[in-house]
Structures
1.
Amino acid sequence: MSDTVKTDPTGITIEIVYRGIFQKTLAQRICRSVVLAARKRGYTGTAFGRYGDSPERNGVPAKYFAVVAVNDLELEASMAKYEPSVVDIAVAVDDTLVKGVESWAWYGRQPIWKPVHEGGAVLVTSEKTPDEVLAQTDTAERPYLMGIVPGLASFAGLWVFKDDHTDYRVLGALAKIVPQWVRIEDVKTLIQEQTKDGSAVASAQDGYERTQLRQVKVGEGTSGHEVLQFDKPGWTTMRPGVIVDARKPGERNPYYKKYGARTLRPVVNFDTCIKCTMCWLDCPDECFEVTPEGHYEVVYEACIGCGICAQVCPVKDCIVMVDELKFEDNDDKWQMWKTDHDAYNRWFEQKSGVSADPKKVALASSRAENAAPGANPTTAGGED
Amino acid sequence: MALEVREKQPSDVETEQLATGCEAIAEAIRLADVDVMAAYPIRPYDGVMQAAAKLIANGKMDVEYIVADGEHSQFEIVKHACAVGSRVFVGSSGVGWFYAMEAIAVTAGLRLPVVAICGNRALDDPGAFGCEHNDALAVRDLGWLLCWAETAQESLDFALTAWRVGEDKRVSLPVAIGLDGAFLTHSQQIVKIPTQSAVNSFLPKFDLGDRLLHPDNPITIAPQVDQDWLMEIRMQNDQAMRKALEVIAEAHADFKRLFGRGGENPYLDEYMTDDAEVVFIGQGTLSLPMKVAIRKLRKEGHKVGLVRLKWFRPFATADVVKSLSRFKAVGVIDRDYSFGSPYYGGVLYNEIRSAMYSVEKRPTIVGFIAALGGREIEQPMAREMFDKLTAAASGGLKSGDITHWIGVRN
Amino acid sequence: MAVETHGTGTLPQIKGVKDVPYDELFVSGHRTCQGCESALVMRHMVKASGPRTIVLGSTGCMYVANTTYYTTPWVVPWMHTQLGASGSAALGTAAGLKVLMRKGKIKDEKINVIAFCGDGGGADMGIGAISATLTHKDYNSLILLYDNESYANTDIQLSSQTPYGAVTTFSPSGSAKRLMHTRWKKNMPGMMAAGHPESRYIAAGCAAYAVDLMNKIRKALELGGPTFVHTLDPCPKGWDYHPQYSQELGHLAVETGIWPLYEVIDGVCNLTGPTRQIAEGRKKRKPVYEYLKRQGRFAHFADEDVEHFQATVDKMWTEWLIPGVIPFTVAQKDQTLLRIEKRPLHEETKPA
């Protein structure tokens, strides 16, 4: 099987699936560069964000598109569109996005490969192996090419762009799999023109060389993810007066679960918890349930991974934010702690990399300890 | 419909008053047991607010009367009072109406049956107080019902009808009543004030059912929508507006039965049209000088008549077409303008023209822009329009494809 | 887990975090940013008010992000209103309920009416309508202004509540102009307090002090008449910081003295929380730099910008008639005349 993607000879459509706000600038830069690089050989193109995503929200998956066409006439098929229904390549610039894309209410949870045509490609920026990433991707319904672009998720910031060369590496990776549309020479020339920075050019070459490719066959992936799909009613059954039923007390919104927005999830050490209420109290998304014993457990179907709970918790390592790709399900965990205490603590330690033994932890001297920049990714401006 | 008994009513007999259109509507507010009204001063509509204030101060009616800080707030206040189940009333004129336009648009989107009068006034700039219809006409695409009154009596009658039709569950849309500035807002006429019991038979209680905003009925009203939903919501509004034609006809029949008034047709009045060869059509009080002119022309042997359109929205296309198809020529009198429109015609002109498009043997349609800025329709102007209309009918004037501005100094 | 139900009558003051009611009347599943403090304010707002509440939400993040048709995160009845209409929505709803109860058309009972607005909709476009409503002492309502210091929903544009020098899409920092926005934040809660003596309750709060905020909301609803609460909400998207620091930034805003916490109850001004401690001299104000440096929207600040910011906050604390509340100074000669004993606040009110 080929290590390149076959496309329609008249043009190519690429979507960047990204974390809203954090990666907005990154996604725009990649798409614009695809079009501008293609321009060097006389092609034309368009770049646009999916309007339905705006206004973007921190963490909520969003999409940006780059379309290259051989001429203006062919380009028309991609103009005046909210979003292309079929793409050649989907690029996830955060590997946790392979667990599914849910962008707004009634959207459902869509597999990362959903709009990719048969024989298309899914590129993912990750430090993990293709098999590790595939293990968290929905079972393939069509064969596609998976490519892992080396690197962590780039949280580039809103006002201050932290340049870690992710966009250059992604461009290099694209050049590897669709050289007919993204020529590595054009990419390098463009980057040189824009940045005058040899290391940026080298990063493109790096992406071109080090992107690992893996053909994915039908049936490969995981079937463990929740199916979240909805049929929309029509005007005859929609309540008149633009009215919807309120939520019932104790309910959470079933039409928009939003857990797909997180890249990290909190794990809780119930042994060291001092039941101060702060995590429950300060969660903007009401993601904690109060247990009969007065602990606070995370409802993983609702948690969007903001990290406030970990920050406000006064006990060191009582709440630890962990890479979302380490988890296969959204099951709540307090019951496990209650019925099999040791198994839960082993689970906690294995996921968090931190000891669960209360003797080995102490109250944090100040909240600032948990706020150490190295502990969590920050946007630019988080510290000096 | 159950008879409502209220304490301390005046004796339940029909009375007569010498009242302006605004004052007549104040009586309608009293009879309808309006719950909340919001006032803001602008001429010429606010006579209704002044009259209502007097009624409240003298204990004649119990209405929550709020003086707002501007027209936008005014219309927002009653919209929200309506959502919690209040029967409401509001109004404005000219640029004040436009200041409220955001609230006006969303009220229709929300399907809330606010009843408003528009005391028709020319739009600024320059400032002018005289009668023009463009203010009220601005709602024509939004989902508001819109009608024009001819007399103070009809003003009161339309107000009662407005609550009846707007609040009907099959419609549930806001209703605007055009009252020509000065001619109707400020001129006193003999008005029959109906009895409370008759009004109670005509006007049921306002009941939002499961759309009521109240802690016993947990709902969210108007969440943000996107491209997947809005068209379906608009469809619902379209269907409601279509239904409104039927509901207006029902209300008209009921009104006639209870009060003995309302004319033959719910949507339009015909005057001397039986054997007419040419007719004029227009809205509001311009009908009065036109009827005077028509009687004079008839004495001279001319076969001419008048159709007065009562309801502009919903536009009773079938009824209008059926009526106007009988004539050789139709002169549309617009007390409004629509700069740059097809044939530079007024708003009503292009609506009539469009409505008549599918008729096999179409009458010649001529557009007249007349009586803007509060100018009267004087008899010589009516005569001029007649001459132009008949010339068009006999082919002497180039078809309908010219709009004539009447009575303008060069 | 048992869900407690509220009584419909009084809303007693919450003694501490353990007394915070469990009822969630604004639930998970809304499209707000990670770390959105305005969403937390919404949650606390209706937690404090209980289920016998009608909420009117004006256009903004708390409308567009929270409610997406054909669903909702609200348990209590909720209705949209226009950007500048929160005051009118409160007034119309309260007046409608009042008259319907008086006429016996609906049951006579206490129903909380809360209309919320953002800083753009409240302090800019809708300030006239809010002001009008605060003069109508016969109608009970709470207007809650959630202030994330920008028109956030339209992707961050400056409002009258945006701090001096902050970057927004209408005030980017460029080579020709380092600062495009040089207007100081308008004193909204102070203005509402000073201008509407018939409003029984005006307050400034912050979700970083959740119990204080909930108690302010309850007090407003208990006292009745038209009331106003203004919260400062750190916003990861607009202020450009990692969402996990939202609570911390709320604390810093208050501890630097930039955002004083207070309430005015029946004309009596009362400072609360760390603001009180600062005024009493028990706590030193932290330098504003500790707050500014954490946010990308100030990353372009030069030393002189920080100094100006600090100096203005200092002035607020050392020269204003009531620090953070009333910005008048009084000439020496008038201090006796006006019965104002103008002593400097404790030395410690200068930043540490």
Note: Residues 17-303 of chain C form a domain with the Rossmann fold fold (CATH 3.40.50.970).
2.
Amino acid sequence: MRATLGQALAAYTAAFAHGRGDLAPAEPATAGGLSFGALVREELASTKSALARGEAMAVAGLLGKASIQDVVEAVSSAELSLQKITAVRDRVIAAYQEILRMPI
Amino acid sequence: MDLDVAMRIASAGMKLQAARLRVVSENLANAESTAPTPEAEPYRRKILEVAARRDRETGATLAAVRRYGVDRSELPLRHLPGHPAADAAGYVRFPNVNPLIELMDMREAQRSYEANLNAMQMARTMLQRTLDILR
């Protein structure tokens, strides 16, 4: 991953502060220079390209233009990318739900 | 990511071993392929030449086929006077394929393929197990 865990954490707290209505700007720039939104966007883009590669490889494999090893490699890499992004999404949604359930 | 790169390297290794098995089966199948005339060359054993190739996208060194070479060693002679490819003395030049060597090569290709397969599976398992923390 291109962003470090520390950056992600800083982005997370900035996003959290933003959600609370603190004096953070709309797209909070954090210490690492990478916001949580940008992190997710970047990951989404790489997942999208991995999925496209997996699909193209599967088609090429069915047409006999790619070897089965390439197809397996591309498809499983796409699958893992998708799992990664869905796991992060589930976590973010769970965090927001946790905040919504908070007694005021 | 490194684990993705590991999977790509293993996949290249598997492709190489598939190419190696291709050469082995070609050699085994043509172990008796003689020439049509005494002057012509019979089938010669093929050799796989392996090269380390740098993958520009990831910076990893992948194993790949450089080219399919030919074994230039001596051809065995067999005394078969009635054969169309027999010379004046009745000897026929046969392919320089030793089935025993080919079988060993085949076994080695199988083992190497399995090793690469295990590396790929391991990279996949490691990624999956790391993702499981988030669940």
Note: The two ends of chain B are 21 Å apart (CA to CA).
